[in-house]
Design goal:
alpha/beta; seven-stranded mixed beta sheet; 27% strand
Length: 213
């Protein structure tokens, strides 16, 4: 296969041109802002109005924390919307533009944005899940386990709104980040490795999580 350019996803771009007839999308919503830097999502929704509030799922792309964008998991987000969910297909800041824990901080900001804007889009704020693969699986697992960790909340927006998710499906998930001690030129110290490892934070209050490998 011809290698893809960084951040480009032909499948996601093709879906931009043709969505399922049952799905609508609101593109390029800024859900977090750091100075002049905006982080954006595409919100996939069922076209047919629901009789009740619908659950939402935050969809997180992979790419080794270094590549990809919100179009990479567009197919998955559209599938979820076709089956009655709201799906927030998110981007996040990548290495080496940032260092850890910034990608985690962005994902938490995305959950807060969905919850804060739930009424506008007919979403049930008490039923928000997350899914992702590879690096996105790691970020999904962090959402499932670290809702009590204040230092991972960041200041991207919607302060005071919960970043807790109620369920997660994490695929090909790095759960112990000691195996990833040097990413994007960043040498991660042991305290940071523990902070960004889902296994550190698992307890009885973690969200129910399905791990797929």
């Amino acid at each position: 296969r011809r290698p893809q350019a960084r951040g480009k996803n032909p499948e996601g771009e093709a879906l931009r041109r043709k969505l399922p007839d049952s799905v609508k999308v609101v593109r390029d919503i800024a859900f977090a802002k750091y100075g002049d830097r905006e982080v954006k999502l595409d919100l996939y929704l069922p076209k047919q109005p629901a009789s009740d509030k619908i659950p939402a799922i935050v969809v997180i792309h992979g790419g080794g924390w270094r590549s990809g964008d919100k179009a990479r998991f567009a197919t998955q987000a559209a599938y979820l919307a076709d089956h009655g969910f709201a799906a927030a297909c998110i981007g996040y800041r990548l290495l080496p533009e940032v260092t850890f824990p910034a990608p985690i901080v962005d994902c938490k900001a995305a959950v807060r944005w969905v919850r804060a804007n739930a009424a506008k889009y007919g979403i049930d704020p008490d039923h928000i899940g997350a899914t992702g693969g590879s690096a996105g699986g790691h970020l999904t697992a962090m959402l499932a386990t670290s809702s009590k960790v204040k230092e991972l909340e960041g200041d991207g927006g919607n302060a005071g709104v919960s970043s807790r998710v109620q369920a997660a499906v994490a695929m090909a998930t790095p759960a112990d980040m000691s195996a990833f001690g040097n990413r994007g030129g960043q040498k991660i110290d042991p305290k940071m490795i523990a902070l960004i490892s889902p296994v550190t934070h698992v307890d009885k209050d973690s969200a129910p999580t399905l791990l797929l490998h």
